[in-house]
């Protein structure tokens, strides 16, 4: 099954970041976690892509989903799986 590339910008010890990881793991999909604390360049990349400074910032393909609450809301509306599958 094809799936969109999923990227999660996160910071250690962020509970919302952990919940985002758990939700994606429950979907049994591949995703990339990028720690924004690894370098200022990574944090700036996230801020430019997302227009936000908070973590997590989640991208599914070219779509900026937002944070964990936004992704969970998509899942509650049964829209997350189809967004992932569009890859």
What can you tell me about this protein's structure?
With 87 residues, this protein is of the alpha+beta class. The chain has a single domain (6-85), classed as Glutaredoxin (3-Layer(aba) Sandwich), CATH 3.40.30. 44% of the residues lie in helices and 20% in strands. It has 4 helices and 4 strands; from the N terminus they run βαβαββαα. It has helices spanning 15-26, 40-50, 68-76, 80-85, and strands at residues 6-10, 32-35, 57-60, 63-66. A 4-stranded mixed β-sheet has the order 2-1-3-4, sandwiched between helices. The radius of gyration is 12 Å and the shape is globular. It starts with 5 loop residues before the first strand and ends with a helix. The mean pLDDT is 96.
Q: Care to give the gist of this entry?
A:
This protein is α+β, with helices and mostly antiparallel strands and 87 residues long. It contains 4 helices and 4 strands, in the order βαβαββαα.
CATH architecture title: 3-Layer(aba) Sandwich
What average pLDDT do the residues reach?
96
Question: pLDDT under 50 segments (min length 5)?
Answer: none
Largest sheet: 4 strands, mixed
Give the N-terminus to C-terminus distance in angstroms.
Answer: 9 Å
DSSP strand count = 4
Strand adjacency order, main sheet:
2-1-3-4
- Indicate the percent of residues in helices: 40-55%
CATH topology: Glutaredoxin
The structural class is alpha+beta
What's the total helix number?
A: 4
**Highest-level CATH class:** Alpha Beta
- What letter string, H or E per element, gives the SSE order? EHEHEEHH
The CATH H-level homologous superfamily: Glutaredoxin
Please report which band the strand proportion falls in: under 5%, 5-15%, 15-25%, 25-35%, 35-45% or over 45%.
15-25%
Number of domains: 1
Overall 3D form: globular
> C-alpha Rg, in Å?
12 Å
